Amino acid sequence: MIKIEVIYLQLKHFVHQLLLVLVFVIPAAAQDISVSPITLTFEGLAGQTVSRNVKMTNSSKTKTYSFTSSLSDWDRDSTGNRQYHPNGSMAQSMSNWIEVSENNFELGPGESKNLTISCAVPHKLASKSAYNSMLFLTQTNPSKSDNADQSGIGILVAYEFGIQVFYNPLGTSLGDMEINAMIYTGPTGTMRNGQVQLAFANTGQINKTGTVRLEITNKITGAEIKTEPAYFAIMPQGKQRLNLPLSEQLLPGSYLLVAILDAGRGHSLKIAEKDLVIK
User: Which helix (H) or strand (E) holds 20?
Assistant: First the structure.
């Protein structure tokens, strides 16, 4: 069986290369199962139990899908990729607080189901920083792929959806975002136009998401290069490095390099500037 591990169209970092090939073969539009939302944030007093709903929909007209739920601890590495750890092994784990209304269930053709996710907040918390877990909804009745190759070898496909779960304690510090470094690297064999690496940090106690974009201006001609916004997600007190490939190669000259980091509502734009000379 080959499993499509869909963290809403993002693959977990340890998925095998064979799986990567399969996912490109099966387009997103062909997926029968949808899940919403993909992030749950709980807020409540110590000792309270709070609940949220997750909706799953089966758009297939003929297939019935069976699912089971499980939980895992997780964090992010220095480049923002998810890392998974045993349930309850991390200091900020909330895996043992979570209950799902149905741990094993089916979705018939055209059926939708609301799962109630309950979070029992402990009476005493070790810290005021955000807690987190990952809720997995994994298909248990894999089906034969419609994209099986001409050799006749059947490929069994199973979906796995990951839902990020957070709890923000009362009084959690929003904090801020900081840009710590910006480094330009010229063209290489794998990076034809060069790239800019941005190092940044989350000083707050909650998870943050946002975008980073670049503006590069030739100081003599005034010509500008602007990159498309690149998405980031960073854990509380986290530090990351984000590589931003350039859309075109910089010719010899003098440039002003500007990075703009936007963490959304409640945060001011963070702007870093650097003079750059290409010889």
Answer: helix 17-25
